[in-house]
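To whoever picks this up:

The nightly regression suite flagged Alkylhydroperoxidase as changed. Nothing in the input moved, so I suspect the structure step. Input below, exactly as stored in the fixture:
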Amino acid sequence: MTDYVGLYQHANERLEQLGSEAPGPMSGFARLHKKTVENGALDTKTKELMALAIGIAVHCEGCIAYHTHDAIEAGATREELIETISVAIMMGGGPASVYAAHAMDAIEQFLAISE
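Regenerated output under the current build:
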């Protein structure tokens, strides 16, 4: 089983280092991310749930870690996270169902430290 809390922390450290060594692209991506998930017609929680579904559908464990963490931080409930996984499976089929199992691990891990 993947340690999604550890993966999240490690990725943050490496991305910070990458930001120092490649500030142009990384600062551009950071601005894109910040502006995209700001509350607008859709709230931050909804956008993070959408990003989680896409992360599952495209088979990205790092995305699962980040967007599970950020969705919970934005107030997503377990029920909302499970429905998000269902949408990802609908859109990604069998391969996404395998990554949905990974997302279940991430949900359990991040919910345990947020309570």
